Amino acid sequence: MRENLLAKAARDCELVASSETMAIIHKPAGVGTELSDALPLILARSNTKNSGPSILLPVVKAAHGLVLVNLHKERFQEVLHQSVVTTFVVVSVCDDVKAEEKGPPGSFSIYNCEVLDVHASNTDGLLFTLLLTYSRSLLDLSTHNPSPVKELMRALSDVGFPALGSSGVCAKRRCSGGRGLFVSVTGIECEDGLRAKVKPPIKFKTMVEREKKFAKPSEGDSVTGIKTFCGIDFRVTKDVMDPCTSSAVLVSRATALLSQTKNPVILDAGTGSGNLILSLLSALPSATGIGVDVSKAALQVAKQNAIQLKLESRLKLFEGKFDSLRDATKEWVDCVICNPPYHLSRRKDSGPSQHSRLNDPALALFGTGEDGLGCYRELGKGLPGVVKSGGFVVVEVPSKAAARVFDEAMRSNFEDVWKEGHEEILSQGYLRGVVYQKRGTEMG
Predict the structure, then answer these.
(1) What does the pLDDT look like over 240-275, one tens digit per residue?
(2) Distance CA 208, CA 215 (A)
(3) Which of 369, 370, 292 is nearest to 328 (CA)?
(4) Model's pTM, two decimal places?
(5) Which residues form a coiled coil (predicted)?
(6) Higher model confidence: residue 401 or residue 288?
(7) Rounded-to-integer distance, Cα 70 and Cα 61, Å
């Protein structure tokens, strides 16, 4: 195993700059302590003279970027008298700290902290992309040998962006042991003129863009206000979930499925603010809708939104549960659309985001059953009694596991009700929902 790691380090790492006494090597994420043993092989590829090379700056296995190396063991003490300027690109969830509230630098000579990007996170605080530059003495590093992750988190705290992940730096905040702190060492500059720069990995950008698409809360006030979904403004209160932008693909698919249906009737199971059903009614002028929810307060919000959008004459609202939809509606529908609650854990270190915990009702967040997917099983029981022959079911799923549970619920005792197979709704390559169609052999 060690030999494989050594071979990978020697193959994937490369020399980018060197002087008489030091060199800078570029390493990918995933290369850790084995880099020390691979140094002679890496330097030999570029015919760089060396005798007993060693790593000067601490290496973080998960980090991408540049590593500073001493080339000659006998000149180690000479090298230690230099200071090194290091530049990091950091993607991390941080407290929302205003510039005027930033404290003075502490352990490091930090002279630049630039915010490259910031937006709402799917956990506590905000997701920042930071460019952090500070200088360090190699002699101090060799004497104190600090943990590179703790050192960086302390540096972030010094400049007013405490990362949520270190209980030592962020007391009373949930501790993730450094997970979620993505680091790329993009620049090293030494006193003797040795320097190098690289770009952060492309995954940093794609990771941030993905969170913007799927995790960013809708625009508007945090508790009661206006949220935008599918280009429509909806009123929300503490009694309903904020409309989630990722659910828009369900509306798009349902609209396409019903585009050729004359005067379709659509049921929104767990309607909440009514954003799904009202978006569909706006897109399908001949459609009528039914909203069902166990919360009377949520039904009032949906009613107010329907009135605001002048769609109240086309929407009926009922109190009811997933497994007894027929008892609530008393009629057949062409399509059911639903985004059930599915979060299992109420612990702060997992489950829904802090934003959702603070602003969304627990009834809409947390699923039932040991796996949190009980609502999908209940929905599977209630659907056969309301969907017309040839009608559709469009349901959001958070994972393949949820999709399997829902499929089992749809097939159990109802194998002949639904057509074989189902369609997956994908967005940006991720599973967002499933579509089922009822067989057309029975009267509905």
Answers:
(1) 988 888 899 999 999 999 999 999 999 999 999 999
(2) 10
(3) 292
(4) 0.52
(5) none
(6) 288
(7) 19
Distance, CA of 117 to CA of 214 (rounded, Å): 17
d(CA 158, CA 109): 10
Beta pairing, strands 64-70 & 182-190? parallel
CA atoms of 185 and 436, how far apart (whole Å): 48
CB 277 within 8 Å of CB 315? yes
d(CA 234, CA 244): 12
Compute, in degrees rounded to 10, the torsion defined by CA atoms 358, 360, 365, 366: 60
Classify strands 54-55 and 64-70 as parallel, antiparallel or unpaired. antiparallel
DSSP string, 228-296: EETTEEEEE-TTSPPPPGGGHHHHHHHHHHTTTSSS-EEEEET-TTSHHHHHHHHH-TT-EEEEEES-H
In sequence order, which residues have a C-beta less than 8 Å from that of residue 229 and are 6 or more positions away?
218, 243, 245, 247, 248, 275, 279
- Give the single-character DSSP code of 330: -
Domains of the chain by start residue, with CATH: 2-214 (3.30.2350), 225-437 (3.40.50.150)
3-state secondary structure of 215: coil
CA distances from 52 to 67, 69, 73, 195, 225 (A): 16, 11, 5, 22, 65
Q: How many CA atoms lie within 13 A of 73 on its CB side?
A: 5
Buried-state track 238-251, b at ≥16 Cβ within 10 A, e below 16: ebbbbbbbbbbbbb
**Cβ–Cβ < 8 Å for 270, 341:** yes
Contact (Cβ atoms closer than 8 angstroms) between residue 402 and residue 410: no
* Of 210, 215, 212, 90, the residue nearest 161 (C-alpha): 90
| Between 442 and 360, residue with greater pLDDT | 360
